Amino acid sequence: MEDCIFCKIIKGEIPSNKIYEDDKVIAFHDVNKEAPVHFLVIPKEHIESVNVINEKNSLIVSHIFLVINKLVSELGIDKQGYRIVNNTGEDGGQSVNHIHFHVLGGRNLTWPPG
């Protein structure tokens, strides 16, 4: 997508504090940190939201969770715990129409989130 901020980050048109990249995904620290550890994992393929996951693109979700597993261990939040958040649609709080997963940790995360 031409005007998608995450697509621009993937292309290197917008800088990010990247912590991981492979041929399928990129992970980077969130610029609006909500916890001591707060990063996003996004697929390089533009997929608008969970609502458009299908047979052809569904394997990306399992790959994203494998990457999250690796990164939480490397960042030292795997033992204490962390939260994975995916917002879908306007009422769900999705502000960028490119599927992404927030990973937050490094502090006690209260519930409900708000």
> What's the CATH H-level superfamily name?
HIT-like
Number of domains: 1
Question: Mean of the pLDDT scores?
Answer: 95
Helix content: 10-25%
Q: Please report which band the strand proportion falls in: under 5%, 5-15%, 15-25%, 25-35%, 35-45% or over 45%.
A: 15-25%
Largest sheet: 5 strands, antiparallel
In the CATH hierarchy, the architecture is 2-Layer Sandwich
What structural class results from the helix and strand content? alpha+beta
- Report the radius of gyration as a whole number of Å: 14 Å
CA-CA gap between termini:
30 Å
- Tell me the name of the CATH class: Alpha Beta
Uncertain runs are none
How are the strands of the biggest sheet laid out side by side?
1-2-3-5-4
As for the CATH topology, it is: HIT family, subunit A
Overall 3D shape: globular
For this structure, the quaternary state is single chain
Taken in chain order, the helices and strands follow as HEEEHEE
Per DSSP, the total helix count is 2
Q: Would you count the extended β strands for me?
A: 5
Active site: 100
Organism: Clostridium vincentii
GO molecular function, one term: hydrolase activity
InterPro entries: Histidine_triad_CS, Histidine_triad_HIT, HIT-like, HIT-like_sf
Per-chain topology:
Elements: H1 5-11, E1 18-21, E2 25-29, E3 37-43, H2 59-74, E4 82-85, E5 101-105
Antiparallel strand pairs: 1-2, 2-3, 3-5, 4-5
Explained architecture:
The protein has 114 residues and is α+β, with helices and mostly antiparallel strands. The chain has one domain: 2-Layer Sandwich (HIT family, subunit A), CATH 3.30.428.10. Helices cover 20% and strands 22% of the residues. The protein has two helices and five strands; from the N terminus they run H-E-E-E-H-E-E. It has helices spanning 5-11, 59-74; strands at residues 18-21, 25-29, 37-43, 82-85, 101-105. The chain has a five-stranded antiparallel sheet with strand order 1-2-3-5-4, with helices on one face. It is globular, with a radius of gyration of 14 Å.
